[in-house]
Amino acid sequence: xxxxxxxxxxxxxxxxxxxxxxxxxxxxxxxxxxxxxxxxxxxxxxxxxxxxxxxxxxxxxxxxxxxxxxxxxxxxxxxxxxxxxxxxxxxxxxxxxxxxxxxxxxxxxxxxxxxxxxxxxxxxxxxxxxxxxxxxxxxxxxxxxxxxxxxxxxxxxxxxxxxxxxxxxxxxxxxxxxxxxxxxxxxxxxxxxxxxxxxxxxxxxxxxxxxxxxxxxxxxxxxxxxxxxxxxxxxxxxxxxxxxxxxxxxxxxxxxxxxxxxxxxxxxxxxxxxxxxxxxxxxxxxxxxxxxxxxxxxxxxxxxxxxxxxxxxxxxxxxxxxxxxx
Amino acid sequence: xxxxxxxxxxxxxxxxxxxxxxxxxxxxxxxxxxxxxxxxxxxxxxxxxxxxxxxxxxxxxxxxxxxxxx
Amino acid sequence: xxxxxxxxxxxxxxxxxxxxxxxxxxxxxxxxxxxxxxxxxxxxxxxxxxxxxxxxxxxxxxxxxxxxxxxxxxxxxxxxxxxx
Lengths: 326, 70, 84
Prior knowledge:
The complex is a heterotrimer.
Chain A: E1 4-6, E2 14-15, E3 26-29, E4 32-35, E5 43-48, E6 62-67, H1 81-84, E7 94-96, H2 99-108, E8 113-116, H3 125-137, E9 141-146, H4 152-159, E10 164-168, H5 174-181, H6 186-197, E11 201-208, H7 216-229, E12 236-240, H8 255-267, E13 273-275, E14 286-287, E15 294-299, E16 302-306
Parallel strand pairs in A: 6-8, 8-9, 9-10, 10-11, 11-12, 12-13
Antiparallel strand pairs in A: 1-2, 3-4, 5-6, 14-15, 15-16
Chain B: H1 2-5, H2 15-43, E1 54-56
Chain C: H1 10-38, H2 49-58, E1 64-65, E2 69-71, H3 74-77
């Protein structure tokens, strides 16, 4: 039987008959590559939109979130490792959820959108594309929460049915990507640019890990790149690390480090820089970049105040605030 | 009986002690291997009719608390 | 125990040699597995194919044809060593 070469992500796995790609869920059976978790998610939940995190995309809405097993990265600090670092045949729980059923369930629960998330939706690409196509036809929006380690052509095609993404930019350092995540940096940067070019709303998350990627000079370079290539209106979320999986030897990120990171990013011109995973922090509040008017206050994932006009303008200076508000 | 205990092999070693040692060691080893085999058999029942573990989507509790990120 | 200790015998050397040989064989076997795992290889993973096919038969998993692949070219299958 012939081996196949997967073209979905930069790994370009050459997969012999009966074996899986590095992601564990794309398997060569009978000389053809099979998406073994199509329609078979192992995690299905309804979350607030802010949890993705998306702060400038339908704030306060409920989002129907799902994931299958598998992932094409192997981050030492993966919080979702029990889902992402397994193949479908290893999961204890699998739902039968064909694309039409997913859309129907999301509508029945009055969700505004569907999120393909938790593990990495790149590895269940076909399921995402088919579900998102039906969702769009039904008036729902589609959110892709990803580490963005995907080739340009598959991403371009998928962007046709995506409305928003939260994409990880784990560090502005290729060595970090190789050592900590099992990937490389450049394809991720290319993917972020592709999202922007294809008109998908982008918010970027950077998980700050003490001693590994908390160098302020690197954070400054990363922020400059985002400002130049993605635009100063691209929301950037600095997220707090907590010990996980195979990275339990490091302490949680000090709040001070997150605040410094935020200051660096704002210094180079990024207008919407947030601190996540830290309850009660001013860092999760949206303010007008011109006059500081409070727009949206959040407590954890809960919206507590929203003063934006229905078309997303500042109530004081009438500036249009970038995002998708209705 | 005493004669058997004092019986020597061709190189002058006590046969009885050697047999006792081999007997005890063999029992321990056999017990260990047998126990491991039993555990392995229990843990991995092997191919056979699969117990279905799939769930219809409509039976999912979408609002149950979870700690998945993203 | 000390009273039971006895002079070293040539037979003991053979016995220890047998144990050492067994340990070396075990180490070689394990090392081969580690080497396979550590190789920056073709990127594929060996899976429990039986378990997978069983689950496909029952419908828990699928064998739906994926997008974005091609039949591996000869130059792709010869030699290992592809880092991401």
